[in-house]
Amino acid sequence: MLYAYATTGTALVPLAPQADLSAAIWVDLYRPLGSQATAVAALDYEIPSLADMEEIELSNRLYMNRGTAYMTAVLPGQLPEGGSAAMPVTFILNARRLVTVRHHAPRPFETFPRRADRGSTGCDTPERVFLGLVEEIVGRLADLSEGVGKVLDRIAGRVLSRDATSETEFLQDALVTIGQQAELLGHVRMGLLSLDRILVYHAAVTPRDQAPRGLAKGIQRDIQALEVHADFLTSRIGMTIDATMGMIGLQQNERVRILSVVTALFLPPTLIASIYGMNFRVIPGLEWSMGMPMALGMMAASVAGVLALLRWKNWI
């Protein structure tokens, strides 16, 4: 799909599907068809394929070509078939317009056109549209980080409660949820790192008289603060996993303790029954009429004795 936007100076206005793309200040290519990529390439841009965008070499993700900067970041977003993933997004920027190429759907690409007039960057130049879009992406990454923190608050509070050792199903689900949040936080960290890289590269290749450097510096400071917050969340994830595994271990220890008590209670009766069940010709009391009641009494007494010993030792 192809989305094109023109600027009114303070807002972005979507262009009609058949409008002339040369009037656009921002062209957004989402899983573009061949004809759509060709139409944008006719404006003197090289549209990278998904394979090109996935190359991790620096020369494939940050480079200049005929005065146009090509910058690729890895951002979290929704896949067309459902689910989420971190995939590359390429920003192609020059003095005429911004072109973005993506094969998944990061939410800021949907929200930024509607809120561009409320951003701090404005949208009267391609540079400002680019920085406004990056600012929107950083805001989205901040929201995702905050969401991870709220999930960890909820899980940690319940795991560390007094009743957690009796909630087997919850503890198992908690491990899955924590793992999902760790994966999401990994996508956020990758997005922050790649955005920081492209902002540094953008500042290096953009003439000083054309770049709103104060805005870029402010976004970079936000990214650095979010990276510190991501480090904090990473440590919290580790702590929550350790606490959950500890509670699961306590559950298992409690079950083993119960089994050990039952084994200890029935060990002496088993010994008595084994002695009187031996197949020797001569066994004292074999013909005694009170042998059976005596053996049963010894078994009951041994169970009571072991039970009293365990209670005296405070083991049950």
Give the gist of this structure.
One of its GO terms (cellular component) is plasma membrane. Pfam families: CorA. By secondary structure, this protein is an alpha+beta fold.
What can you see in these coordinates?
The structure is a single chain. With 316 residues, the chain is an alpha+beta fold. The protein has two domains: 249 residues, 2-Layer Sandwich (Beta Polymerase, domain 2); 54 residues, Methane Monooxygenase Hydroxylase, Chain G, domain 1. It is built from eight helices and seven strands; from the N terminus they run E-E-E-H-H-H-E-E-E-E-H-H-H-H-H. It has a seven-stranded mixed beta sheet, with helices on both faces. Helix 4 crosses helix 5 and helix 5 runs parallel beside helix 7. The longest helix has 64 residues. The radius of gyration is 34 Å and the shape is rod-shaped. The N and C termini lie far apart (68 Å). The mean pLDDT is 86. Its main location: membrane. This is Magnesium transporter. It catalyses: Mg(2+)(in) = Mg(2+)(out). It holds the Pfam family CorA. GO terms for molecular function: cobalt ion transmembrane transporter activity; magnesium ion transmembrane transporter activity; nickel cation transmembrane transporter activity.
